[in-house]
Amino acid sequence: MSERCLALNDRGLAFGDGLFETLFVHAGRPVLLGEHLARLRFGLVRLGLPEPSPEQVCAALEAAIEPGRHGVCKLLVTAGPGRRGYRRPEDIHLTVKAMFGPLPEPPDAGVVVGVSPVTLTGIEQLRGLKHLNRLPQVIAQERMPAGAGEALMRDAEGRVVSGTMSNLFWREGNRWCTPPVVDGAIAGTRRAWWIERLSADVVPCAPGRLALAEEAFFCNALSAWRPVSVLVGRALRVTQAPPGDAVVPIEGFWQPPADPDGHEMPVRAAWSDSLADALAGTHWGRLARQELGGGTPG
Question: What span, in angstroms and rounded, lies between the C-alpha atoms of 137 and 135?
Fold first, then answer.
């Protein structure tokens, strides 16, 4: 709708100067909202941008999300309108927008995984952030290997980083593993949740190491568990349920169970008084303090 469009001079549109969060919405409530808000606030600090107020975020979400509906909501926060040139204005007025749509078709029971020809690189200051420039992933999706539903992206040294739109986990014996967040990669909310649930090890992953994988899955905000049936040409064991039965099926997708206290909305219930509290109180934040260096600007 027109009132939710960005102005042509918005820095998010002109320069990718901003962040976004993709929220899985169950019966009108975003799942793991506190995790997403912690990552959003951390990212704004890293970009040198002010925080929006909880009221701004709440108003955007409530205006977009249809009550009682399942769907996907994209929350967008940009540096707002600005003059020509890269330098931000001294007085920043954030743009906070949200849009909501139906869930896509549920994924297949097992995904066939190839290797992307696109290298995923970036700069240290943006490591782990869900910033608005996702062109490497766009190009990787355009160049998806034939027959693959997902593809592994590698860094400049050839090590596996992630999928084109998800984080990777694989099992070696009784040990679950996932690659570290390197420059250009996104520190996923479901990735952090699984690392704590599975006591997973964060280990560098040369492609040859995946020959040790007995099981593997991808995760992102839309599907917290998407098992792999074929990993770079090798068939894997596909289970009927996620490890530890830690997630539940919702409309064909797997998600962490809803907050038993119903504190997923409104935003105020999931918004901590400070960024430090937001990081300490979330799976994502606790891991970010180890991997990304806390909430201080990088």
Answer: 5
3-state secondary structure 261-277: CCCCCCHHHHCCCCHHH
Angle at 170 between CA 209 and CA 227, to 5 degrees: 135
d(CA 110, CA 133): 29
In the chain, pLDDT over 70 holds for what percent of residues? 94
Q: Which two tokens stand for residue 25?
A: 């919405």
Instruction: State the residue for tokens 């430090």.
Output: 276
Identify whether the C-beta of residue 49 lies closer than 8 Å to the C-beta of residue 79.
yes
| Alpha-carbon gap, residue 295 to 275, rounded angstroms | 7
Per-residue model confidence as pLDDT tens digits over 191-205 = 999 999 999 999 999
Residue 296, both tokens: 């201080």
Check if the beta carbon of residue 81 is closer than 8 Å to that of residue 9.
yes
**Alpha carbons 121 and 139: distance in angstroms, whole number:** 13
Q: Provide CB contacts within 8 A for 15, sequence distance 6+.
A: 86
**Omega within 30 of 0 (cis) for the link into 266:** yes
Q: Which helix (H) or strand (E) holds 45?
A: helix 33-47
- φ, ψ for residue 226, nearest 5 deg: -130, 95
Dump pLDDT digits (tens) for 240-260. Answer: 888 877 789 999 999 988 665
* 92's tokens: 């920043």
Residue for token pair 């782990």: 128
